[in-house]
Design goal:
Layout: H1 2-7, E1 18-23, E2 28-32, E3 35-39, E4 42-44, H2 50-56, E5 63-75, E6 101-104, E7 110-113, E8 117-118, H3 132-139, H4 142-150, H5 152-163, H6 165-173, E9 184-197, E10 207-210, E11 214-219, H7 228-241
Parallel strand pairs: 4-11
Antiparallel strand pairs: 1-2, 2-3, 5-7, 5-8, 5-9, 6-7, 10-11
Helix pairs in contact: 5-6
Bound molecules: flavin-adenine dinucleotide.
Flavin-adenine dinucleotide (FAD) binds at residues 17-18, 45-49, 70, 114, 190-193, 217, 220-226.
Length: 244
Amino acid sequence: MAAEVTTNGGEIRLGERVVSVREEADQVNLETDRGGMRARRLIACAGLFAGRVAKWCGIEDDFKIVPFRGEYYRLGSEKNKIVNHLIYPVPDPALPFLGVHLTRMIDGCVTVGPNAVLSLKREGYSRFAFSAADSLETLTYPGFWRVMRQNLRSGSDELLNSLFKTRYLAQCRKYCPELRASDLHDYPPGVRAQAVMRDGTMVHDFLIRKTRRTIHVCNAPSPAATSAMPIGREVARQAVALAA
Ligand SMILES: Cc1cc2nc3c(=O)[nH]c(=O)nc-3n(C[C@H](O)[C@H](O)[C@H](O)COP(=O)(O)OP(=O)(O)OC[C@H]3O[C@@H](n4cnc5c(N)ncnc54)[C@H](O)[C@@H]3O)c2cc1C
């Protein structure tokens, strides 16, 4: 894909952070930590930072990204053949991202997870990662507290399952009874970007917002990775329709 971008005249700039965006009548100015660039149009897919980038462009501040860490375990290699396929729980339509599943990975190992616990840092991948700014933004947001109130039971279950391996194991044993605590080995977590509306509604669909010259993918929850190509086609269609 990268080769396709570059052979068609595109440029991929990695490790460069956009620090501000300013939209003008005939262009969009981006300031980065290595300088800046101008564009006729901007498509922003900033994941955990989608809300902040959208705000720079004047998008209505009626949602916020709340980061939820998803923790996994990996089974020992002797258990690589324990399942032949992915095993998922029947989803709760109100909280479709909950429920640990067993996944055969591309390298043959089997992962168990993820759960969903509040992360106190947007790109905080360790259990104790903390950012005062990120925490303050979440904890002072009324939408977050409304979500917590509405999901007190499942939220506390997820937290306890994260703190106590035996509880996590009990979830996995519902579909894979022969698993033991000693089978669960550390595996890197991920952090979900979950858009939450001010009224406490968790956005389960894709949320795309626009200005005259910019498009923002503000919420792209699972299965957005799996669906990346059709989402990309839809965003491209919308980009073509923006101001020329
Ligand atoms: C634990 C977990 C399990 C998941 N499981 C699945 C699954 O099984 N199937 C599935 O389809 N999806 C799954 N997902 C969801 C999937 O990862 C997301 O839907 C997808 O990554 C969203 O893509 P995105 O491009 O919108 O955002 P991201 O993949 O988050 O990409 C955003 C990028 O923008 C960059 N960025 C942000 N701000 C700036 C800035 N200011 N300057 C420069 N760069 C910036 C970030 O560094 C990042 O690279 C899972 C997610 C998690 C966390």
